[in-house]
Structures are given as structure tokens and as C-alpha cells.
Amino acid sequence: MGKGIHESGEDYLETIYLLSQKKAGVHSVDIANELNYSKPSITRAMKILRANGLIVMDADNHIRLTAEGNARAEEIFDRHDTLTKFWVLNGVSAETAARDACRMEHDISEETFARIKEIVRNSPMV
């Protein structure tokens, strides 16, 4: 999906995005708790995201998405949300659909995703 980050980096961006919707001032420990990862793993990941210009950290160690990071996170979240809805519409339990969407959101082609998005958007059940 993009420059310099892998699937795990996309998961971090999405997590920062979602946490920042719930509370001001996201910290590394919040991300670690949400993803159940170690603090050193989060620290390494934040360095990579910072180096790629996707996050900034202030003097109080609050993590914020840059404009580019926010755009990428919104795109990742849209993929996750749309794929989850698609599978739920097709009879998959919400929990399984969300778990599978998390795996699929990173690898699905633009063409396939656009078609799934169209189906979900036109579904009377959404």
C-alpha cells in the first residue's frame, strides 16, 4: 500500500487513528495495550513511522498523525470497515469478518476493493 511501511506499520497507523478518535493524546503505551504488543516493539515502529513522515511526537510524547499519516490511516480504516461489512453481509459473524478483514485489507487489489466497496455501498442492509 505504500512507501516504507509494511502490514504491521499499517496496523499501527490504523490503531493510532482509532485511538485518537476516542481520546486526545495517544501514547505508545496506549498502542501497546490496544495491540497487545511489547513497548519496545511499539518504540521501534514509532521510529519508522516518524522517519516516513507519518507521525509526530510532541514534548509530552503524544503521538499524532501527520496529514499524510492521517490520509493513509483513513484509507486503511476504510478498507477494514468496508471488508468487514462485506463479509457480514455475506453471512460471516462480525468477529470473524473483522479478523479476516484485518488480514485482507493489506493485500487486496484496488480493482477488487473498488468492486466490494460498490457492493457494500449499494446494499440495503448497510
Describe it:
With about 130 residues, the protein is mostly helical. It contains six helices and two strands. It has helices at about 5-20, 30-35, 40-50, 65-90, 95-105, 110-120; strands at about 55, 65. The radius of gyration is 15 Å and the shape is elongated. The model has no long low-confidence stretch (mean pLDDT about 90).
Structure characteristics:
single chain; mainly alpha; 6 helices; 5% strand; elongated
Count of individual beta strands: 2
Order of secondary-structure elements: HHHEEHHH
Structural class: mainly alpha
- Strand content is under 5%
The 3D shape can be described as elongated
Biggest beta-sheet profile: 2 strands, antiparallel
What is the compact description of this entry?
This protein has helices spanning 7-22, 28-35, 39-51, 67-89, 94-104, 110-121; strands at 55-57, 63-65.
Draw up the topology in text.
Blueprint lengths: L6 H16 L5 H8 L3 H13 L3 E3 L5 E3 L1 H23 L4 H11 L5 H12 L5
Antiparallel strand pairs: 1-2
